Amino acid sequence: MIDVNISDQQISILSEANSQIDATQLTILLTKESLIESELLAVLEATNTLYRAGFPLIEDKQYDAYIAELKNINPEHPYLSQVEPEALAEAKTVALPQKMLSTDKAYSFAEIQKWVKRILKAANELNVAEADIEIRVTPKLDGYAAFDDGSTLYTRGDGVRGQDITRAFQRGLKVANLGERGLGAGEIVIQKSYFDEVLSQHFENSRNIQAAIIAEKKVDENVQKAIDEGACVFYPFALLANKTAHFSEIIDNFDDIVAQIWGAVDFDIDGVILETTHAAIKAHMGATRHHHRWQIAFKVNDESAEVEVKNIIPQTSRTGRVSPVAELVPTKLSGATISRVTVHHYNMVKTNGVGPGAIVQLVRSGLVIPKIEKVIKKAEPQLPDSCPSCHAHLLWESDHLICPNKSDCPAQTENTLVHFFKTLGNNDGFGPKVIERLSHYGVRHIHDIYELKVHQLTSFGFGDKTAQNLIDQLKASREIEIEDWRFLSAFGVSRLGGGNCEKLLQHHSLLKLLELSAEEMVKIDGFAEVSAQAIVEGLANIKEEFVKVYALGFNLANTVKVFEMSENASPIAGAVVVFTGSMQQGKRSDMEKHAKSLGAKVAKSVTGKTTYLVTGEKVGETKINAAKDKGVEVLSEQAYLDLIQ
Length: 645
Fold this sequence. Notes:
alpha+beta; seven-stranded antiparallel sheet; 38% helix; 20% strand; globular; 25 strands
């Protein structure tokens, strides 16, 4: 039995979908202690319709509980063997290029172990050695399932027929991670951080936005802005961050790997996907009408608790934004004691009455990140007047309190330095503790750190050996080759992550970017006016420091310019290249980097647009034949090297 409050929008959706029950009947059924088979089916169909329309009524775990109950009553019920359908008019559906099935689910480690045993059984039947069995673990994106064949974008529909929603790309939707079109199945998603900071005041949840992106009617202006700024993307599964390892490593380190993958992307996820990578095992295990047997989703029931707030602690970030952290009465949740949790922004503190004595509902999502779900009992909101780091008077900027003291605020300078060395990624010495000590002794800028001498570091309390090691690492960080886009990204300009840096540097040099106007930037594909203005302003703020650091002589690998790619500077200029297998001439990542320098586009999976599949050792015939069937030229590692030489 659960509490239900059906909105007018949800009532309208059920009516338009010709649901077998209306909102009043659904409310009654959801509050009953137990349901018969016909009632369970009615609840499942109605709540599924609301979920896919972007207005979910119940949580995933409750839906899955109803599924489990139906399975208990009638294991052979047809609803259990079909992909949960979208509420689409039959006349508007088209056949999918390939079936898009649901994913079987597990809620415990014991269920994962049983699934692995089935994998091993299949391997034994095929005489596949256990040493060759790897499992790939990826985030399970909680978005809008879709399939992109390169020319058309489809909804999943009922798994066989979906709806043509190519209009989403026509509206400016991009593929995540600068990916190419045509990478198959994926999800339409929106960045969590962007939703929390920009859209949470306009939309109840991110699924409202996912549905709005593909709507036939005109897109909401806030959603269109999110598309233009790259916050809404189509994320192909092939491009997802993953952990691929021998099955024994996955099982032995299961909790750590789940935690790692759960936080790998800035999008809503509701679990992790595990799948065997062995083509023969996949073919042998096959699929039901509902899901692939060689794949499973591990999901975690979110536990919640009502907790009292003791205090609101302000923290200043490197951008000057002051974030509220709620100090809580220590509460055990999902096996961990939670005493602090971040509140989205100070406007939430102000409008929802978050302060000492407030009672909040705390949820620990996926055993990883605790968050405040809602405020149950309001209190006097606790708002700071001054920056906790430099005591400057704070200013309101939209939903956020901002410290305007950019040059002398210790928190902003410290965090900027930490971000620089972390993004540069070519030395380990300058972490938060070292930066904190340097800041304490008045070192505020990146160029100041590179001008330090051993005797200065020893005077700051570092030992002789540590001081020399730090100087050596600074020297190495200038000499070790790094990409120019990574160097630029290290300065932490808002909206200028690695992807946008690379896109800009395909058109302009580093120093030229400092002089670029917003009007010139908008001409580059992928940059809307709002983001261009923000980037230009951000570059102006760091210009003086950037020039000083650039003059230190870093060994930068220049991004290949668009005009260089078009001049056939190499045999693979403009080609789409995929590398697979173990390479003998060097790391695969180094070969990919070199291919990019020759003007090639490097992809992670083979599609009809792939030019060359370069194969190292231990590549299955199935993968090679599949590439050939798509008209892709398959090259051995040596043949590829001969080609580019």
